[in-house]
Amino acid sequence: MLKMRARLLLVGLLSAGILLPLSAANADQIGSASWYALRSITASGERMNPNALTAAHRSLPFGTKVRVKNLRNGRSVVVRINDRGPFVGGRIIDVSKAAASQLGMISSGTAKVSVTRLN
């Protein structure tokens, strides 16, 4: 009985580690990124500036800095989260046009990336 409880506890702890959100686990997130260059107001209240190194993320707090790395070419950029999104399934982050340029993904529109929280 004790061994069974220990196994259940271990499975529970492992499951919790897998299900933690990025903001709690502070771990890499890997998925698809896209870019946008609107001239509207972001969810944080700032005017969207396509020339700034900013990004939209679904859950990270505004002001959080993350390193976005293009896994196809190895290029990376540090961006500040100032908007919400992306609103397309399968994508984990939307970066500004300036950030997309540094990542080398302007022409492709999307790229497979890793996102690492820095602060």
TrEMBL record:
GO molecular function: lytic endotransglycosylase activity
Highest taxon of source: Bacteria
Domain RlpA-like protein double-psi beta-barrel: 30-114
The keyword Cell wall biogenesis/degradation belongs to this UniProt entry's keyword annotation: yes
Keyword Protein biosynthesis set for record: no
Keywords: Cell wall biogenesis/degradation, Lyase, Signal
EC nos: 4.2.2.-
SUPFAM superfamilies: Barwin-like endoglucanases
Secretion signal, residue range per the UniProt entry: 1-24
GO process annotations (BP): cell wall organization; peptidoglycan metabolic process
Pfam families assigned to the protein according to its UniProt record, in alphabetical order: DPBB_1
Protein family (similarity comment): Belongs to the RlpA family.
NCBIfam families per UniProt: rlpA (TIGR00413)
Role, per record: Lytic transglycosylase with a strong preference for naked glycan strands that lack stem peptides.
Name the record gives this protein: Endolytic peptidoglycan transglycosylase RlpA
Species of the source: Methyloceanibacter methanicus
Taxonomic lineage: Bacteria, Pseudomonadati, Pseudomonadota, Alphaproteobacteria, Hyphomicrobiales
